[in-house]
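Quick start: what a row looks like.
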Amino acid sequence: MIKKFTKEEKSWAFYDWGNSAYSIIITTAVFPLFYKAAATEAGVSNADSTAYLGYTIAIFTFILAMLGPILGTLADYQGMKKKFFTVFFLLGTVSTAMLAFIPADNWLMLLVCYTFAALGATGANLFYDAFIVDVTTEKRMNRVSAFGYGLGYIGSTIPFILALAIILLSQNGVLPITVTNASRIAFLITAVWWIVFTIPLFRHVRQKHFIEREANPVAQSFKRLSKTIRDIKQYRNLVLFLFAYFFYIDGVGTIISMSTAYGTDLGLTATSLLIVLFATQVVAAPFALLYGRLADRFTGKRMLYAGIIVYIIVCIYAMFMETLVDFWILAMLVASSQGGIQALSRSFFGKLVPKENSNEFFGFYNIFGKFAAIMGPLLVAVTSQLTGNSSYGVASLVVLFIIGLVILTRVPEPTEHKAVDEVVAES
C-alpha cells in the first residue's frame, strides 16, 4: 500500500509516525499518570488534579490560538513555512525531553513544562497540516491525510510498547529502576522517536505554494490578516465548516487529552489504562485508513457524520461506565473514529482553502480548533468539580458534538480542483 504514495506524500506522512509518540505517551498515557501520581503525593484530590490538567490544556491552547493566524500569515511567504515548523518542532522535542529531569514531586513544574511541550507539538502541527497542499492533489487528499493518521497510530505503538515494557518491568522488579525513572525514560524515548522520523520531512518536503517575499513582511502580514478577517464572511462554506469543526473537534480533543485522568478517577490501575490505550492505537490505525477509503466512495462529509455520531454514543455511554470492561468498550468506540474524523477534517478544509494562502487559512483552522479546546476541558473541569463525578464531565461533551453535527449539515461537499472563491461564488 505504501508504494501507492509519492516520496513527498510518504515523507510528510511519516511526521505523523514520529509525532504521534508524543500524542500517546505525553498527551494521553504516561505523562497524565505521572502527573496524577505527583499531584496525589502532594495531597491534591483526584477531582482537583483533573481540573488543573484541564485548566493547563486551556491555557496553552489559548496561547497558540492567539499566535496561530499571524504566524500562519507570515509562513505563507516563500521559504517561511518550514522555518516556523522547525522552531515549534524544536520547542516541542526539547520540552518533552526536559520532562524527564523535573523532580517527580513538583506537579506544578511538570504542568509548566508540559505547557511548552504542548505549544511546540501543536504549533508544529499547524504548519505540518498546511503542508498537505504542497505534497498532494485535492483528489488524493482524503487518502493521504488518512494515511498520515494511520501511520501515526501504527508508529506510535512501537515507542509506546517500549515505554510500557520498561514501566511494567520496573513495577515487577525485573529492571532495577523505579517506576518514576521508567516514566522519565519514556519521555526521552518520545523525544528521540519524534526527532528521528521528522528527518524525511526536512529532506523531501518543500513549500510549493507561497506568496513572494516583500518589504516589511510583518506589517504586510498583519494587513493581509486584517483583509482576510474582513473578507472571511465571503467564504460562506469555509466559515460554516470552521464553526462545525469548532464544536465537534472540541469534544474529540478533550476525550483524547483527559482520558487517562478520567480512567484514574474511576479507580482503574495504571497498568490497565496503559494496556487499553495501546489497544486503542492498534485498532485506530486500520480504521483511519478505512475512513480515507470510504470517504472516496461515500464523500468525506458523510464519513464525518459517521464519526460524530460514534462520539455522541461515547459521551452517553460514559455516564454509565463503572468497570474496566466499560472502559474497554468506550476505548474501542473512540478508536473506530478518532483518526478518521481528524484526517477527514484536515482534508475537507484543505480542499476549501486557496493554496498560496494555506498557512493563513490553516491558522484560522488552528484558532477554531484551539479555542474549541479551551471550552471542552473547561466544561469537563467545571462539571467534574460541581458534581464531584468525572463521568458527568465527559457526558456534558455530547452537546458539542450535536451542535457540530447540525452546522456541518449546512456545509456543501467541496468540489475538487475548484478554488475557494469559485466555491463561494456558487454558494
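That is the whole record. DSSP finds 18 helices and no strands in the chain. Residues 141-171 form the longest helix (31 residues).
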